[in-house]
Amino acid sequence: MKYTYNKVERPAAPLSARLAAVDPICLDILYNRGIQTPEAMESFLFPSLLKQLKSHPPMLDMDKAVAILKDVVSNKYTVTIYHDYDVDGVTAGVTALSGLTQLGVPVNHYCNDRITGGFGINAAGVDDIMSKFPETRVLLTVDNGIAGIEGVARAKELGLTVIITDHHEPGAELPAADAVIDHKRADEPDGQDKNCCGAGVVWKLLLELYSTLGRDVTPVLDLLDIVALGTIADVVPLVGDNRTIVQEGLKRINAGKRPFFRSCLEVLEKDSIDAMTVAFRIAPMINAVSRMGNDASQLIDLLLETDPVKLRGGIIALDEINEARKEETRREAELAKSLVGDSPVGAIVFNHESLQEGIVGIVAGQLKEEFSLPAVVLAQTEEGNWKGSARSPEGFMLKEALDQCAEYLLSYGGHAKAAGLTVRGSDLEKFREKFTRLAVEAAGDTGFETAVPIDEVLPAEDYTEDLVRHLSILEPFGEGFPRPLFGLVAKNIVGTRFMGTEEQHVKYHDASGLDVIQWNKGEQAKARKAPPKKFVGFPGLNVFRGETTVQFIAE
């Protein structure tokens, strides 16, 4: 990992009372990240949801969708929600279901099987919906649909009214739906906020619908906890609308109103839930359901469950499924790394008949991180084709690369950094060759590995409990606004202790009282003649037997 530290001194400027109460180190971090005026800092740290949403126009076709749904509310027409199977899709489904149900609309929900149905609305899924819910008049897609040309065509053929709400990149042609809401449409104005996840998009539609109907919007605002879960899990940039949504959503999560989150606190043994807890504990449990071949539609019922006993059992079951997913991921990642080798060139396109389709996205992400290269990981289908996921580092536009490889693909879709695809079995080698060549051309002489900026460098004695608590004002952390990265200068390490059953972890103790922990670095520490004096990582608090100490988790 490469690091850079190029701190720019923040000039003196008059500060409001709220900003003056913020630790100067926090303001320095904002300044060095490009949030440089007092007004911008105030807006970032203390955003107003209403002000943020009014800072850009409604998305295109929002008026068409609202008009359709007004008619639905008046006539109590049945709506079926077509949602995706990941966290964003599930939370978008919960959002749409709750918002419409509270308006008296009869609502069903439907999700493809991850393995057999694939991603997004398709003709087979529409036929299945009409078999299960023949009373359906309106089909509402959430977190999918922008690429569902054939699925929408089938729905229209059957006489359905179709509303698309999505956030994925559209192709050259939009589906022939009655309303297509997607902020990534090419004709959306430049002033539009284009970062929301699927749950965020349909939430905005509900807010517009309630406002147009003259209804109290409180039920929509109360869904921000669910929307925040989807926003964090989908790794969309936590800036603009998303940052405000997540801030407001986390407040509602920790207020304890929704039984699901109360049970999460209990099962996970947490006092509170922050963005990191959502990203690394709750979201993986939900995603594991479809990854391991289970029915993701049941998750909607779990998120809306109110019985504490059922909730506790359901969340424990999710945790167990996720543990099985972790073990399968470990096995597949080890297989991939053993066959890819130590020095892949250009890009990684890895396929193997033993891979599980639900796991390939995680493996692709791990390969991308380890080698700083675009990675495609593919599992074989019953038809002999190769279906999987792709992940990309900065500097390689994944969706554009797949556009150029479309002749070899049966289907694909996604973002600049993540995508799903199915490669025709007979064209796998041609795809591998072209995709790799595109990556080599994009990498040039410098490659894709970019230096990671360090936000602040401090001596050991400056890492205090007070500082760590002050840093929380910068939350939530995530894509687009990562957790601040710190440099530590420790000139007086007075103790070294190895931890773990195999002494695989190491803890250094500084004379200032600060503990520095490095996970899985025990062997390197034993080989050193003296403890290191410089570390990169982040500070945190450790509470043990009622005593709070500061520790620095080093990379």
Task: Please describe what this structure looks like.
With 555 residues, the protein is α/β, with parallel strands linked by helices. It folds into 3 domains: 3-32 and 455-554, OB fold (Dihydrolipoamide Acetyltransferase, E2P), CATH 2.40.50.460; 62-311, inorganic pyrophosphatase (n-terminal core), CATH 3.90.1640; 341-443, Diaminopimelate Epimerase, Chain A, domain 1 (Roll). The protein has helices at 17-20, 24-32, 38-45, 49-53, 62-75, 87-101, 123-132, 149-157, 198-213, 218-221, 224-233, 240-255, 259-267, 275-291, 298-304, 308-340, 360-371, 398-404, 428-443, 465-471, 522-527; strands at residues 3-4, 78-83, 107-111, 136-142, 161-165, 179-181, 348-352, 375-380, 386-391, 409-414, 418-423, 452-453, 456-459, 486-489, 493-499, 505-510, 515-518, 534-544, 547-554. β13, α20 (465-471) and β14 (486-489) form a beta-alpha-beta unit. α6 (87-101) packs across α15 (298-304), α11 (224-233) packs across α12 and α14 packs across α16 (308-340).
